[in-house]
Design brief:
The chain is built from 16 helices and no strands. It has helices at residues 2-44, 49-73, 79-98, 103-117, 120-131, 137-145, 147-166, 168-189, 212-228, 230-259, 265-297, 302-326, 334-361, 368-385, 388-396, 399-417. Helix 1 (2-44) runs antiparallel to helix 5 (120-131), helix 10 runs antiparallel to helix 13 and helix 12 (302-326) runs antiparallel to helix 13. The longest helix has 43 residues, at 2-44. The protein starts with a helix and ends in a 16-residue tail after the last helix.
Length: 433
């Protein structure tokens, strides 16, 4: 009877934890993109392409730093505090941004916003590992990461309405306020671990402190081996490529459609919304389907189950970029543009979810955070490249040239990913069933 009560109690806490993380991390994503959605309106009021790129890159640079640091920090501080305070601080900075006027202040505030944003996902990953079974980790990871897609699918229309009705400042202000409110809710409702409410945790138990000194050298050797792993660097390079493509598509896609393909604000916003909607589907399916494949085939090496799916999706990214550059024009129907955005989003966000899972699973349990921090850093380097450097490409050539270049880079990335089989052990199936 006690066991049944514990199961019911655990289920209630799991629902509360996941719901809070889902809404909160969705708000992280909404906050992160609030200025990107306002950039066209800001550029109509005198903001230049290079200045827009500087603002975008300042956040991406800070995010790359803070997400790496957040992965380490999440092992030392309360994940609940890290998640909630990061959301509150990010929201407050966004509200202040809406009242600012100078390029210097815009850049500084958006850099600070990026620092606060890095607290979100490391805290999510730690809480997920505490509250959910490893056998379904990939599915819950994908479901949670898809929260930004839902927020991203709704926010372009809300932002377009607020911008056209009240101006870009109100749109940014609303986003920041929502983050502050959800941050307070997260601080109240989240619990760090099932053990805090006298339930067993799914996370692996930590080694006793008395053994820390004796194992320090072995741990250092393990970190060295991890950094030397060719498979980790394949994942890191691929993550950097797809994140660059994703950030470019969400940040510059609507500007490209409006300025060079003569589409309206609502059609361009619809494309961005479709990206996020497709991303929601692709993110969930990638984790769920590969989890299902691993269970059905009794495959213990997750790389063999996940990497081929990532390669197929990256091929879809290349095709979508080709169509976006060569087949979209002023008279292309709204439906086709939205459909293209949906497929592109699914093919972008699927690998993003898989690369994070692969990095976490391919490392020893005590180094999974470090492995994810490394590939996340690479991913955010890709996001930085998509900002100021790509804005210079657009200024010198065109926004279309950016997407043509991304097509070429994606094809090269697929070739790199295809070499993964050389570094996977031949015997990967379990001998027992």
């Amino acid at each position: 009877m006690a066991s049944k009560n514990n199961k019911n109690k655990l289920k209630k806490y799991q629902i509360t934890t996941f719901s809070t993380l889902f809404m909160g991390y969705g708000s992280y994503g909404l906050n992160r993109k609030s200025v990107s959605l306002a950039l066209p309106a800001m550029m109509e009021h005198g903001l230049g392409p290079s200045e827009a790129g500087l603002i975008a890159s300042s956040q991406n640079l800070a995010y790359a730093i803070s997400k790496f640091a957040g992965g380490i920090l999440s092992d030392k501080v309360s994940a609940r505090h890290l998640f909630a305070l990061g959301l509150i601080i990010s929201g407050l900075i966004t509200v202040i941004f809406s009242y600012s006027n100078s390029i210097g202040m815009f850049t500084l505030l958006w850099f600070l916003n990026g620092l606060a944003q890095g607290a979100g996902w490391p805290a999510c990953a730690k809480l997920l590992r505490e509250w959910y079974s490893p056998t379904s980790f990939g599915t819950w990871w994908s479901l949670l990461s898809s929260s930004t897609n839902i927020a991203g699918g709704i926010s372009p229309f809300v932002a377009a309405y607020l911008i056209t009705s009240y101006g870009w400042r109100m749109s940014v202000r609303v986003s920041g306020t929502v983050s502050v409110v959800l941050g307070v809710i997260s601080l109240i409702s989240l619990i760090n671990s099932p053990t805090d409410v006298k339930l067993p945790s799914f996370a692996a138990p930590k080694k006793k402190d008395s053994k820390a000194t004796n194992n320090q050298k072995n741990a250092e050797d393990s970190v060295y081996s991890l950094v030397k792993s060719p498979l980790l660097w394949i994942v890191a390079v691929s993550y950097m490529s797809v994140f660059c493509s994703k950030t470019s598509s969400t940040d510059w896609g609507q500007i490209y459609l409006m300025e060079e393909r003569r589409q309206s604000q609502y059609v361009a916003s619809g494309f961005t919304s479709s990206l996020e909607t497709g991303g929601f589907v692709g993110s969930i399916l990638s984790g769920w389907l590969t989890d299902l494949y691993l269970r059905v085939r009794n495959e213990t090496n997750t790389v063999k189950g996940r990497m081929p799916v990532a390669i197929i999706m990256m091929a879809g990214v290349a095709v979508c970029f080709h169509l976006l550059y060569f087949n979209v024009h002023e008279h292309t129907s709204r439906f086709l543009i939205a459909a293209l955005g949906f497929v592109l989003g699914a093919c972008l966000y699927g690998p993003i979810a898989l690369f994070g899972i692969l990095a976490t699973e391919s490392a020893p349990p005590h180094l999974s955070g470090t492995a994810h921090a490394i590939v996340a850093l690479a991913a955010n380097v890709g996001a930085i490249i998509s900002g100021l450097p790509f804005s210079y490409v657009a200024k010198s050539y065109s926004w279309g040239s950016v997407f043509l270049m991304l097509e070429v880079v994606t094809v090269l990335t697929i070739l790199i990913m295809s070499s993964y089989a050389k570094f996977v052990p031949k015997k990967s199936k379990s001998k027992t069933q």
